[in-house]
Amino acid sequence: MSKLSVLVTKEEINAKIKELAERISRDYADKDLLLVGVLKGGFMFLADLVRELTIDVSIDFISCSSYGNSTVSSGIVRILKDIDYDITGKHVLLVEDLIDTGLTLTYLKDLFRAKHCASVKVCTILDKPSRRKVDFEVDYQGIIIPDKFVVGYGLDYAEKYRNLPEVYVLEEM
Ligand code: IMP
Ligand code: MG
After folding, report:
1. Domain edges within the chain
2. Closest atom, ligand 1, to C-alpha of 131
């Protein structure tokens, strides 16, 4: 049996998204920006974020696996779906649900740098900095959360709970 308790409310998420969207809109005002959602978890945040932006952007998705059905990072990143178009010269912003060990985004940033885009930056709605296994700089940092396994707002446990509108701590009972 498992129990869900709210950790981050919809109001807190919305307020943080407004703040991040203002910064991004300002920073990329005169640039060609491509937002790349990291599937699957990043889909909900990306959908909410783009509606708060005041600039024109392109949108693409990349899908990678790192967790399988376990709650512990394997450290192995596998690309399941790459982006669709050539991104040479584009400014890329990777849009993530949560940064934990930092392994996934370290890998993805290197991958995008190798594709010769103009810049690669990272935006995440949730961050667990206490769990880092690698030094990783977050350009647009969302809400800092403690070292607890969370679900909802795109995040899953064994593909469940992604649809929940708030972020919950998943506790075994
Ligand atoms: P990282 O590579 O350890 O930074 O984390 C990679 C991905 O694992 C995150 O973007 C999430 O999609 C997923 N993840 C990390 N922590 C959690 C969690 O507490 N709940 C659900 N998914 C998580
Ligand atoms: Mg993710």
Report:
1. 10-146
2. 3
Q: How many residues would you count in the chain?
A: 173
Quick one: which of 69, 66, 72 has its CA closest to 106? 66
Hey, what CATH topology would domain 10-146 get? Rossmann fold (3.40.50)
What lies within 8 Å, CB to CB, of 35 at 6+ separation is 46, 49, 50, 57, 58, 59, 60, 93, 95
The catalytic position among 100, 110, 127, 135 is 100
Q: Which residues are within 5 Å of ligand 2 (an ion), measured at CB? A: 41, 97
Q: In 3-state terms, what secondary structure has residue 81?
A: strand
For 123-150, what is each residue's pLDDT tens digit?
999 999 999 999 999 999 999 999 999 9
Report the separation in Å between the CA atom of 65 and the middle of ligand 2, taken as the mean of its atom positions. Answer: 9
pTM of the model: 0.94
**For residues 104-114, b (16+ Cβ closer than 10 Å) or e, as one string?**
bbbbbbebbee
